[in-house]
Amino acid sequence: MTSQTRDAGRRQPRGACGGGGKRKGRSKKWKELLRFPHISQCMELQNYIGERDREDYEVTSDEKRKSCGERIIRRFLTAQRWQTYMDSGADRTWNCTPPGTSSATAEGAYPRFSWYPRISLYPRFSRYPHFSRYARISLYPHFSRYPRISRYPRFSRYPRISLYPRISRYPRFSLYPRISRYPRISLYPRFSLYPRISRYPRFSLYPRISRYPRISRSPRFSLYPRISRYPRFSLYPRISRSLHAYLSGPPFQAYQESMYYERFLQWKMLERQPVTKETFRQYRVLGKGGFGEVCACQVRASGKMYACKKLEKKRIKKRKGESMALNEKQILERVNSRFVVSLTYAYETKDALCLVLTIMNGGDLKFHIYNMGTPGFDPGRVQFYAAEVCCGLEHLHRESIIYRDLKPENILLDDNGHIRISDLGLAIKLRKGDSTRGRVGTIGYMAPEVINNERYGMGVDWWGLGCLIYEMTAGRSPFRANKERVKKEEVEKRVLEDREEYNDKFTEDSRTICKMLLAKDPKQRLGSKSDGALLVKAHPFFRSINFKRLEAGILEPSFVPDPRAVYCRDVLDIEQFSTVKDVKLDHTDDDFYAKFSTGCVSIPWQNEMIETECFKELNVFGPHGSRPPDLDWDQIPAPEPPRRRLLDRLFRRHQPDVSIGYRRMSSSMNSVDSITHSAP
Asked: How many CA atoms lie within 13 A of 368 on its CB side?
């Protein structure tokens, strides 16, 4: 299965790509296709919302990855006092700040959190109820040493009273014994606790502050010399944890009792509607896989384009590939990463099982390496692609999944120049700390332990990353030249015995990372340990990559595919599959088909609704925030009559005649009975 979504449909008709305008290829009846069921039909669904569906409430700063559930709960919080909490917790740009700007980001964050008393960063301050109203005090751990403040309620009205020198006039309330030694100083505001005091080292109350002249310019930060050393890690994680802990309490309980939660159930009901071939428009063939073709398709309701990977039922049964096909589907369904192709729908037809995946219009890396000028890429482009592949492998390994088939053909580019890992047919999920065995993969990219049929773990994927970096840099595979005709045994011998050669295209960093990733001994290979991804990211080869910004989708790629170019083979060059004979399908296969065709995948489907603006146009309520008819419990609609079948529609014109004849006959019988009973 070497071609999944790489040969994307650049030659689609204009209508296939959705055309222009707001609707972008939606069906004229798209609102009917996405019509909300009445809330009375959705309440049973709340008992089946599991842990996987709770991702819908996760707060994220990535606009492209927000779910319907989060947007609905945000709308609920807009009308409540908790909205500012939600906005503050969603801002996670602190984790993606470029070097040198983290201090400014931290300084700009403090005022936003300064008036949230319940988000206390220092729990021990909760013992002082007089100051619990003033969140600014909760940020100053130095005041926790002075419990006597809480005894004087008349000073509790001034949250920053301890910063004023007027207190020093009262010996009983003096917080700083050292000030009392200098009575004259206490009368002059210029010698107060403000940063100007750092100009006078003798009278500095906080010697540590004077070491940080930049901090002394800002009054709010004058008490935080330790925080200034770690502006990105000291405050935000604790605020985020406190924020989520608070929002999961009374705000979420109030949300579950509101009409907004009922609207969320309506969206979940739409998500669970049956998926058939009528859900899509089918377009040209893009390529082929091991069990069938890959074609472009478009969702009728939203107009979004996808790649549909069709697995022929007879071909699967002939090759006994049921477990392999189901394994790929379940892994794709489990992984939700911007660096791995996403599965949005899984359904079946009479002859095939279909996986609807992310369409990648930029072609695969092999096409770009060998067909776009001189073979290979420049160092910056190699670093960018290698970093994104590293993130994709990290996300797979986090789920205990080994990819086992990393090669340029399986790395695809999207319209914006970002890559995704595709074709997870050979991937396998392991238990934590476990290993596996099996000679699977592609000749020339399999690690030595795979060739020797030894037990292996995640290290085989880092071997594949080394092969990929080498090929992107040198313009050839490390153990076989492009289009070189060589036997399988010879390639395996080179992998086991030969050392790769490096030309002048390799920098010192690229040469060292390739040598470390292509180590024959898996124990000596970079990334083979439990924290492998972190060690690979820490290599000097990636020193110019900010991985936090990369994972957030902020970094711009150095190459963006031309929307007018075609990065794939012509449709006539794609070989056709032969017909499978002597294989019959029966009811014993129904259990496997039922496990495979599960319909929509939650988060990708919700992202589709948001990206195509279907969510924005459908998620409306009544005037002034009132309940719309589909959420009104007083307007429960009557059950719809069953739709007439084809024969009923064809012969419906004869039915009135029959009913009229029946009425005439019954009326005549009644008249006869009346005459009989009236006779003497």
From this structure: 29
The residue assigned the tokens 């990206």 is: 611
Type of residue at 428:
I
Beta strands (DSSP E) in 143-227 are none
- pTM, two decimals, is 0.73
Distance CA 603, CA 280 (A): 19
Check the annotation: does 318 bind a ligand. Answer: yes
d(CA 250, CA 54): 17
CB atoms within 10 A of CB 16: 19
At 582, list the tokens.
Answer: 């002597």
Q: Where are the alpha helices (DSSP H) in 458-581?
A: 459-474, 488-497, 508-517, 532-537, 547-551
- In the DSSP assignment, the letter for residue 175 is S
| Distance between CA atoms of residues 222 and 526, nearest Å | 44
Interval 102-142: pLDDT, tens: 555 555 554 554 434 434 443 333 333 333 333 333 333 44
Among 445, 421, 449, residue whose Cα is nearest residue 435: 449
Please indicate whether residue 405 is annotated as part of the active site.
yes
In what helix (H) or strand (E) does residue 50 lie, and over which residues does it extend?
none
Highest mean pLDDT among 114-128, 141-155, 257-271: 257-271
- 8-state DSSP, 523: G
Q: Which residue has the higher pLDDT, 653 or 520?
A: 520
The burial class, CB within 10 Å (0-12 / 13-18 / 19+), for 41 is: middle
Half-sphere exposure of 19 (CA within 13 A, CB side): 9
Q: Are 273 and 49 contacting, i.e. CB atoms less than 8 angstroms apart?
A: no
Distance CA 593, CA 31 (A): 30
**Which DSSP helix (H) or strand (E) runs through 68?**
helix 68-78
Strand, helix or coil for residue 640: coil
Single out the catalytic residue among 7, 56, 364, 405. 405
How would you class 661 by CB atoms within 10 Å of its CB: exposed for 0-12, middle for 13-18, buried for 19 or more? exposed
Contact 347, 279 (CB under 8 A): yes
What pLDDT, on the 0 to 100 scale, is given for residue 431?
87
For residue 499, the SS3 value is: coil
C-alpha span between 595 and 104 (Å, rounded): 52
Q: Which residue has the tokens 């996760």?
A: 58
Quote the longest CA-to-CA distance of the chain.
133
Rounded alpha-carbon distances, angstroms, from residue 223 to 176, 194, 406, 560: 14, 10, 52, 47
- pLDDT for 651: 64
Cα–Cα distance, 190 to 202 (Å, whole number) = 14
CB contact set of 94 (below 8 Å; sequence gap of 6+): 102, 105, 106, 109, 231, 232, 236
CB-based contact 518:478 (threshold 8 Å) = yes
Q: Which residues contact 58 (CB under 8 A, 6 or more apart)?
A: 67, 70
In which element (H, E) is residue 324 found?
A: helix 322-334
DSSP track, 379-412:
HHHHHHHHHHHHHHHHHHHHTTEE----SGGGEE
